[in-house]
Amino acid sequence: MPVLAWSVLAKTVLFGAVLFGTVLFGTILTPSIALAAPKEARHLFGATAKPTQNRTAAAYGSYAKGCLAGAVRLPETGPHWQAMRLSRNRNWGHPDAIAFIKTLARKAASEPGWNGLYIGDISQPRGGPMISGHRSHQLGLDVDIWMRRAHNLALSKDARESISSVSMRRKNGAFINKNWTTAHHNILKAAAQDPKVARIFVFPGAKVAMCNTARGNRSWLRKIRPWWGHHEHFHVRLRCPKNMASCQNQAAPPPGDGCEGAQAWVNDILNPRPVDPNAPKPKPRREYMLKDLPRQCATVLKAP
Question: Residue 37: what pLDDT?
Answer without folding.
Answer: 66
